[in-house]
Structure formats: structure tokens, C-alpha cells
From TrEMBL:
Biological-process GO terms, alphabetical: carbohydrate metabolic process
Matching PANTHER family: ALPHA-AMYLASE-RELATED, ALPHA-AMYLASE-RELATED-RELATED
Family note: Belongs to the glycosyl hydrolase 57 family.
Organism: Candidatus Hakubella thermalkaliphila
Listed InterPro entries: A-amylase/a-glucTrfase_C, A-amylase/a-glucTrfase_central, Gal_mutarotase_sf_dom, GH-type_carb-bd, GH57_Enzymes, Glyco_hydro/deAcase_b/a-brl, Glyco_hydro_57/38_cen_sf, Glyco_hydro_57_N
Protein name: 4-alpha-glucanotransferase
One Pfam family linked to the record: AmyA-gluTrfs_C
Biased composition (Low complexity): 439-449
Domain (Alpha-amylase/4-alpha-glucanotransferase C-terminal) ranges: 369-438, 456-694
Length: 718
């Protein structure tokens, strides 16, 4: 619960008596819910400290345990968490099974250490996690009975074996557990005689997201309207002679650990499937996520040097985990989540810059390996704009931050193949509301069981049961399979394409076109000029064109040079292109320069719209598509963000425009999401041997209502 935002929860927990009477045990966590392993150690401590302070101020408690966001665990956390006063964390039984433990080994808690500093770790029971609240309370009760019976039978068998070993003079330590470990392990798994001694009872942990009790699809009806919660709580009261609910702290105080353990890098089983086995792999799978993460680290250095407390709070807010990954939830695919991260990061940066640059206007340039791939990126900025350039990736601009609006104008996402797209293809043609059942990861698929117990229990109850978000695939609109085509690289600005004359916009939109030149994703040479009141980044590459497909004629060499000029003041970027035919033959081609602008609202003209000065567009919304001839300039306007952007094209061009829309899954089903608008001005290039072609463009961003450049200014650039 994020107490900062939910005042009614404060009243429920405190004034209602839950925390005061000891009915509720409050745990700490990262205040802004970060994935702890991927943020700097000082920030780990600060996130926990802020949550501890809040819990202390509101409820007068010092939490002993911690909720680890998404249960993402890495071994180094043990020391840092313990040094923050955390006594225990709760992770999934899957973490423990990765090192060979079985269900019967997980009826208590374990202790781990890092550099001699210890931390207790409880395992969440995955079967309970899937039973509650998706199956009937009777099914949960039946499962608990089976656990008790298995524990009693297992202990009886174990005692018989120990007795035979003693009779034969065998040493029971030879089976892999040390004497002390076996002693504490056995303490938590002896047969049940009564409920008076916790030490004699098996422990099953249920610790999960509150959303499943009303926020996930179908759960509100299940939990409240159909009476699941009331029935479940009544069942616990009725069966209290053998089922006892207990707080983690109470159990810690009365029961020893089952043994020592060293858990590997892990998260819950579903998360590991989505990430490919290791949470940090999201930063590889999705370069846009890596970009956010590395920008966070980059901005953090500025904030640290500035020493601004408000800037640091904004930085911590930007560590909230939701936008950095994707699974059954929208996550990274949702533009408003990414936009919120960038908003906090840009605000943190602006606050830091106010202290670092005492003057109102400044000009800054830096060559830095921002994404940590071993190749340099270039950052240039003034008081209004940040531009992030990647010379190794086609000499492109992959981020444009407009600071007055705290918005990253290029915050888009590539269309990528996801494993679940195959399920969508299976649903093709079934129409809106189509469903297919089949758990992606659940107790059945993880444990290798048939999963029939839950289905039988469901039938025996004779009641409608809600399925987990992992068990239903719902299509929110028909025809989504027609949008399953994929980008080969990130969607950025200034990507240079050399196209055949017959290439159409729809081929390009679907990425089914042929590139005549190997420029669009290749490395460009670069150098930086810092003039009196302007920074100029020059990028160049020499290559060849292949006409007529793979077996066609090779032409060239062709040298392309582009210069990006950022003045000290204002929010305009000047873009200069030069093509030089360095061959002794005539060269002709089509140059298309790709731009992407992300303004959040694609389907509503009120949220965002195109405009072409002097022309009326039939469709103006940013998710529209079309081709315009003889275009001098194009603009996009966002009432939502309070800004407009104008791209002056210099020489008149044919202009393609189309949306980038991804197809992703969420807890509500498969959905199409507008990510950005793609603009591709195209010029016909005809060059004699050694001839040059030049063009100058300008990108200008301003707040709505500001006076900017007019179309008549184009004569300066043509």
C-alpha cells in the first residue's frame, strides 16, 4: 500500500485498530516500489528509510520485515537489507526450489547471509497463491488438510528411519545436512499434536498483491459480490482448532529457522518466464527499458553533484518499477507509465541544473557511454532541450527532452515479437471478446502436475469461479493479428533510409521494404564543435547503394554528412544534410529520413493532432496515416501536454505519416496501444559524379500559444 496516496487506508489500518491492536503486521519496502537489485546501494537504503519513517510517523511502529518489489532477489541484498534493520523478507517458493528444495522442505523459514550479515527468508506457497481467491475456500481447506497429512506421514517415516539408523549405529549427518542444520530443520516439521506450540506446526505462507482481491478482472465479483471473502474468513474461524493464522514476527520469535540457504538470482516463476530467467534481462530484451534505467543513473550523478533534496526525491520516484518491465501486465508497453518515469527524471535534472548552472542559459555537451554497451553516445543540452545521439546506431537521435513540459518527445517503443503473439494468432477471426484458456505459468505447469484438482473442486462447488490473470487470454478488439509486424531496431529520429522509387508507405510501415543503402543501422563517424553560442555535432558515413534488390547493381560510394546544431538559448534544433556522390557514375535514389514523436494521445484530436500549414487534413489525429505531396512543414500539437512541435523540411518533400502501434497483453487482455507517430519526409536524389545535394531542416518545440517561426522563414533554409 502506498500510504502517501491513500489516506483512507491510513484510517483503516490505524483508527480501525488493525495496527494498534496487533491484528496487522506492517512491513517496510522501497518507498517508491523500485526493483531493489538494480538501483544504487545508497538509494536502496534511502527508499527503505523513507518507508520506515512514514510507518513510524503514521502508526508508531518499527517494521521488522520487508516486502521486496516483485520478489526480485539477488544475493547481495541480504547485507544491505539487514543493515537497514530488516530482519526478514518474503519471496516465492520458486526461489528455494531453484536450489533443489521440495515443498516438504518449505514449511518454515530459512536464514541466509552475505559477508557474514544474516537475513531471514520466508517462502510464499505458490499453490496457495493460485488458490486464493480463484478457487473456492473449500479447495484451499482441502489443500491445507493434505499438507498437514503429508507432514504427519513424513515425520512418522522420518522418525522410523532415524530409529533404524540409531539401532544400526549409522550417523544421520551423512545425508548432506549438518547436525545443527538437521536439528533446526526437524524442529519445524514434527507431527501435529495441538496448536499450542508453533514450533510443532508446518507453516504455509500466503503473501501477495492486494490487487487480486478486487482489482484484477473478475475478482471484485468473486471476492465480494459472490461472498468468497466472507466464506474464506468464516472457514478460518471455523477450522481454528487446526488452522492458525500467525504474523511473521510472532513466528520468528518462537521458531528457529529450518536451516541455512543461499538463494540464486530469482523472482516468482512467471516473472522469470517473462524475463528469460533473470530480471535484468528485461534491460537487454527492451533497449527502451535500458535507456530509462541508464538515464536514471546518468541524472543521478547530476543530482548527487547538485545536492538538491527535491531533485533527489524526484529521482527516487523515477525508480518505481512498473514501467521498466513487461509480463502479463502492460508495464513498459504503456506510454503513460514511461512518461511518468521521464517526467520525474527530467524534473530531477532541471532542479539539479538550476544549482549547477547559475546562469539562466547554458550549453552543455558530453561524450559518454550512456547505455553501457562499450560504444559512445553524445549528449547535448541547453536550458530547454536535451538531445541524446547514438553515432553507432545510424547517427540517430534517440531522446529529445523538452524541459518546460517535462516530456521526452521520442518516448516510443519498437514493435517486437512476443511469445504470446502466437496465442493471438490462434484466436484470429474469432472476434471481439474471444477467449482461450491455458495457463502460461501456474502451479500445474511449474510443478509438473495435471492441474485437475482445482477443476474438480470447482465443479463440486457448483459455483462460477474466476480464473487467474495467467489463465485467460482475452482479445479486446477483433483483427489485432493484422497489426503483428515488427521493427528491426528502435524507433528514433534521423534514421536515414535509401529507398527504391516503387516503395510505398505501407511497405515501410510494415517494415517489408528493401533498403538500397546500408546506412540506417550502421555506425557513423562523429565529431563535436563547440562554438561561442552553439554546439554542432557532425555525423558522417560513406557507403554503397544496391539498386534493384540483392542481385542488383552496386552504386557509389556515397558520403552522407548530417549536422545537428543546438543554440545556447531557445528550443530549436537545426538539422543539415549533405549527400556527396563520390563515384564517377550518375546516382539516383530516394532519401527518407525517419522521425518519431510521442505525445501520448493518438486517437483523440483533442489530445493530439497533426497540422500542415495552409492545408486541411481529412484525418488529423496522431494515429492517422497518409501521404502528402510538396510539403514544406508539418506540425504536431498536444493539448494534453501543452506543446506543439514543428518540423520545417527545407526542400519540399513527399511526406509519409503513420502510427506506431504495439500489440501487447495486459491483465485485461490483448490490446493495441498507440506509441508514437512516425513522419518520413522523402526527397528524390539525382547526383552526377562528384555532385552534392544539400538540405537544411529545423525542429522547433514550443509551449502552446508561444510565438514561433513562420513558414515564410523557410527561405532562410532553402
Amino acid at each position: 500500500v502506498r500510504i502517501e496516496f491513500y489516506q483512507p487506508v491510513d484510517q483503516f489500518l490505524w483508527k480501525g485498530g488493525g495496527a494498534q491492536k496487533g491484528q496487522i503486521e506492517l512491513k517496510t519496502g522501497g518507498y517508491y516500489e523500485p526493483i531493489h537489485p538494480i538501483i544504487p546501494d545508497d538509494d536502496k537504503r534511502e527508499q527503505i528509510w523513507r518507508m520506515n519513517e512514514t510507518l513510524g510517523q503514521l502508526f508508531g511502529v518499527r517494521p521488522r520485515g520487508m516486502w521486496l518489489a516483485e520478489r526480485v532477489w539477488e544475493p547481495h541484498l541480504a547485507k544491505i537489507l539487514a543493515e537497514c534493520g530488516v530482519e526478514y523478507v518474503v519471496v516465492d517458493d520458486h526461489h528455494f526450489k531453484l536450489v533443489g528444495l521440495k515443498d516438504e522442505d518449505l514449511r518454515g523459514y530459512y536464514i541466509t547471509e552475505e559477508q557474514g550479515v544474516t537475513l531471514k527468508v520466508f517462502p510464499i506457497d505458490m499453490k496457495l497463491r493460485y488458490l486464493v481467491p480463484f478457487q473456492s475456500p473449500a479447495e484451499t481447506l482441502a489443500y491445507l488438510r493434505r499438507v498437514v497429512q503429508e507432514t504427519v506421514e513424513g515425520n512418522a517415516c522420518s522418525e522410523n528411519q532415524e530409529g533404524r539408523k540409531r539401532e544400526n549405529g549409522e550417523d544421520s549427518e551423512s545425508e548432506g545436512w549438518g547436525k545443527e542444520d538437521r536439528a533446526v530443520r526437524g524442529a519445524g516439521t514434527r507431527g501435529l499434536a495441538s496448536v499450542e506450540s508453533l514450533e510443532r506446526e508446518p507453516l504455509l505462507v500466503l503473501d501477495d498483491d492486494g490487487e487480486k482481491l478486487g482489482a484484477w478482472p473478475g475478482t471484485y465479483e468473486q471476492v465480494y459480490e459472490r461472498g468468497w471473502l466472507e466464506e474464506f474468513l468464516s472457514l478460518l474461524e471455523r477450522e481454528s482448532t487446526w488452522i492458525r493464522t500467525v504474523h511473521f514476527s510472532e513466528y520468528l520469535d518462537r521458531c528457529p529457522p529450518l536451516g541455512r540457504i543461499y538463494l540464486p538470482n530469482a523472482a516468482y516463476a512467471e516473472m522469470l518466464e517473462w524475463s528469460g530467467g533473470f530480471w535484468r534481462n528485461f534491460l537487454i530484451k527492451y533497449p527502451e527499458s535500458n535507456n530509462m534505467h541508464k538515464k536514471m543513473l546518468y541524472v543521478r550523478d547530476k543530482v548527487r553533484r547538485a545536492g538538491d533534496k527535491e531533485a533527489y526525491r524526484e529521482l527516487l520516484s523515477a525508480q518505481c518499477n512498473d514501467a521498466y518491465w513487461h509480463g502479463v501486465f502492460g508495464g513498459l508497453y504503456l506510454p503513460h507509465l514511461r512518461s511518468a518515469i521521464f517526467r520525474h527524471l527530467i524534473r530531477a535534472e532541471v532542479l539539479a541544473e538550476k544549482k549547477l548552472h547559475q546562469e539562466k542559459n547554458f550549453l552543455f555537451q558530453e561524450v559518454v557511454d550512456l547505455d553501457r554497451d562499450g560504444r559512445p553516445e553524445v549528449v547535448i543540452s541547453n536550458a530547454c532541450l536535451n538531445l541524446y545521439l547514438d553515432p553507432a546506431e545510424g547517427g540517430t537521435i534517440f531522446e529529445i527532452d523538452y524541459k518546460p513540459a517535462l516530456h521526452n518527445l521520442t518516448d516510443t517503443l519498437a514493435r517486437r515479437r512476443e511469445a504470446y503473439h502466437q496465442k493471438l494468432l490462434q484466436l484470429a477471426g474469432e472476434g471481439e471478446g474471444a477467449e482461450v484458456e491455458g495457463a502460461e505459468v501456474g502451479p500445474e505447469t511449474t510443478e509438473g502436475e495435471s492441474g485437475q484438482e482445482g477443476k474438480e473442486g470447482q465443479a463440486s462447488e457448483g459455483k462460477e469461479q474466476v480464473r487467474t490473470i495467467h489463465e485467460i487470454i482475452t482479445v479486446k478488439e477483433a483483427g489485432l493479428d493484422k497489426f503483428l509486424f515488427y521493427d528491426q531496431c528502435r524507433n528514433v529520429c534521423l534514421r536515414d533510409h535509401f529507398l527504391a522509387p516503387e516503395t510505398g508507405w505501407e511497405q515501410f510501415w510494415r517494415r517489408a521494404h528493401h533498403e538500397e543503402g546500408a546506412f540506417w543501422q550502421k555506425e557513423y563517424d562523429f565529431y563535436i564543435h563547440e562554438l561561442d553560442r552553439e554546439v554542432v555535432v557532425s555525423l558522417s558515413r560513406e557507403g554503397f547503394l544496391k539498386k534493384g534488390g540483392l542481385e542488383g547493381e552496386v552504386c557509389g560510394p556515397l558520403l552522407i554528412t548530417k549536422k545537428i546544431r543546438l543554440p545556447e538559448d531557445g528550443s530549436a534544433v537545426h538539422l543539415e544534410y549533405e549527400l556527396h556522390n563520390r563515384s564517377q557514375r550518375f546516382l539516383d535514389t530516394i532519401l527518407g529520413v525517419e522521425f518519431h514523436f510521442a505525445l501520448l494521445s493518438g486517437y483523440d484530436v483533442g489530445g493530439g493532432a497533426y497540422f500542415l500549414p495552409g492545408r486541411e487534413l481529412e484525418e488529423r489525429q496522431l494515429a492517422s496515416q497518409g501521404v502528402e505531396q510538396e510539403v514544406e512543414a508539418v506540425g504536431v500539437r498536444s493539448e494534453l501536454l501543452g506543446l506543439e512541435l514543428e518540423l520545417y523540411l527545407g526542400q519540399r518533400a513527399e511526406l509519409w505519416r503513420f502510427p506506431i502501434e504495439t500489440v501487447s497483453q495486459s491483465e485485461a487482455g490483448f490490446e493495441r496501444v498507440y506509441q508514437s507517430s512516425c513522419l518520413v519526409p522523402r526527397w528524390k536524389i539525382e547526383l552526377k559524379p562528384q555532385e552534392l545535394w544539400r538540405n537544411q531542416m529545423r525542429l522547433e518545440i514550443k509551449a502552446l500559444g508561444e510565438t514561433g517561426s513562420k513558414i515564410s522563414d523557410l527561405k532562410v533554409w532553402t
